[in-house]
Amino acid sequence: MYTVYSITCAATGRKYFGQTSNYALRVRKHKTQMRGRNHDCYRINNDVRQYGIDTFVFEVLHENLNKFMALALECKYVFEAWDRQDNLLYNVQIPSPMIRDSDDPIAAALLVPVIRRKMELLGDSYYVNKE
Questions:
Q1: In the CATH hierarchy, which fold is given to the domain comprising 2-126?
Q2: Inter-residue contact 125 to 82 (CB < 8 Å)
Q3: What is the pLDDT of residues 103-124, one digit of tens each?
Q4: To 10 degrees, the CA torsion angle through 42, 34, 119, 71?
Q5: H or E segment at 31?
Q6: Where are the domains of the chain?
Q7: Would you give the DSSP letter of residue 36?
Q8: Quick count: other Cβ atoms within 10 Å of Cβ 76?
Q9: What are 36-78's pLDDT values in tens digits?
Q10: Residue 79 falls in which region: left (phi positive, over 0), alpha (psi -120 to 50) or beta
């Protein structure tokens, strides 16, 4: 079963959305990367350097989900944040690997075109947080 979670920097309000099948392990990995300033998201590294790791809040948004539902909800949160265009999102890409690996090929087939269309509409802003 999967969990959808967020990481929020209390100092800036920026959020990162993710999903995982092992929430405790994923939180430990995020924190290890944050302490070492080698998180996959460079903006998280910058905010850890500026505000400290203790300003980050981890929150479970949904749990006990199947893989597809977790992906769909993560994408929903990312898309909503992109649509606001308030620069308060750490995520810089859509989590496409899970689409290919979905346990539910019919559900994945329905979601892939929606994600592709959203990426087309976003155009260059798809990489909204790359500087």
A1: GIY-YIG endonuclease (3.40.1440)
A2: yes
A3: 555 555 666 666 666 656 655 4
A4: 170
A5: helix 23-35
A6: 2-126
A7: T
A8: 12
A9: 887 888 889 999 999 999 999 999 999 998 887 888 788 888 8
A10: alpha
